[in-house]
Structures are given as structure tokens and as C-alpha cells.
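Side project, low priority. Logging it here so it doesn't get lost.
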Amino acid sequence: MGSIELRSAVLLAMQSSLLGMITPNMRAITCGYNESNISIKFVFDNTPDADENELCEDILTEMLSHFDSHKISLEVISIPIPENIKGELLDNWIYMRRE
């Protein structure tokens, strides 16, 4: 898969995986990828609760169903407002709430 095709596939899979999954506590979601790895990072305002952690795991599982030949990693962090999150960008922002 070429880089443009991979980018398109990752972004579309992330979009479909996130439908109905965004919580008010989520500040942003970013992802990075290459031919063998996909990294997903969730940035929360407050420490995510058990339900939010489970949502992140569900999204990871959904992504695994799209990319069975990739290693997919998940990172969940908390950065409270008003701290800047721009430095957390991997390759693409998938979601960023208005603040």
C-alpha cells in the first residue's frame, strides 16, 4: 500500500471507529502510521474514567479489525486546560475540540 493509500485508509478507519465514541472529556485524538505500525493517542482534559478507557480500547479493537498486518499502539494521556496540546501531534489530528 502506498503512502497516500495508507493515509487515506488510516484516516477513514479512524473516522468510522470514532462514530459515537467522543466524550466531553476528550480534547483531541491524533495518530501516526507507517508501513507496519499505527499509533493512536487520546488526549483527555481530566484523567479518563473506566468507561472512557474502555471506549479507547474499543476504538483500538475496531482499528485492529481494519489493519490486521499492522501493530497498533494506544496511548491515553491527560492534559488539563489551559495547557497547550499542539506538541502531542503525531502525523495527523483526527479530532480536536474547540476550546
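Brief comment: The chain has a mean pLDDT of 97.
Revisit when time allows.
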